[in-house]
Design brief:
Layout: E1 5-6, E2 9-10, H1 17-42, H2 47-71, E3 74-75, E4 81-82, H3 84-108, H4 112-135, E5 137-138, E6 141-145, H5 147-170, H6 174-197, E7 199-203, H7 214-239, H8 248-252
Antiparallel strand pairs: 1-7, 2-3, 4-5, 6-7
Length: about 290
Amino acid sequence: MTTAAAATVSDFYYGAVTPVAAYLMACLGAALGLRCTTRSLRRPQHRARWLALGAVSIGCGIWTMHFIAMIGFSVEGALVNYDATKTLLSLGVAIAVVAVGVFLVGYRGGSPLNLGVAGAVTGLGVAAMHYLGMAAIHTNGTLHYDPVTVVLSIVIAVAAATAALWAAVSIHALWASLGASLVMGVAVTGMHYTGMAAVSVHLTNVAGSSQSSADLVAFLLVMLAGPLLVLLVAAVIVMFDPDMMIGETGAKTSEPAPAPLFGGDSVFPPREPAQSAQPSQGRTSW
């Protein structure tokens, strides 16, 4: 009869490298998503395109954060491998659920009810992405989860998603949105490591290795290459958008008023007639 023994699990096999890199990816995805949403407010005729790019950016940022952090995941006495299909499926889930939330607030506004629905859908989807990614793990044993910690991670995911969607329709200034993205990075990575704190591994067969193999790291890096490229392309699009050449004065003529945190049915009031203005050569906003 085979007995399962609890293994020592670590999320920081490579020290601070993986959590710091994961946090930066979460911040990058959030920052690009916020700037894309701002572009959608200024360009109603291209709203769907900007919202789609924002959803892809945030989704790729969250997923990239997750799997960079998972590079540091190790089980003492066992090798860890991943199912490629479930890993890629978790990426699709991340992008899809973020798109639902972004398009809901992008087209229906930032009312409390709409934010609550969009935040719940997006947060639950992000949690589903996380645990689907965990389900892709193959090791010499079984993974067990502490129910209370799992619920806490889901609550954090819903709260983080709701706050991110509120920020997307309410914060338009460059430095304010960058600050918001730093806070969102803390929330998203906090959700991840809270979820990881719920994990315990019970080994049935000892593989005689206490570290991730080079093949595992290579696999995850290959998986990360696509989303990282998408984030790079999104960053280039945002930074070299024509608004980069237009000062705040030129942009204000078409920028709608921000949505309040409580109340307000729409963040998209009717556009005012365009006024002729010379492009400012001063401040720029990407």
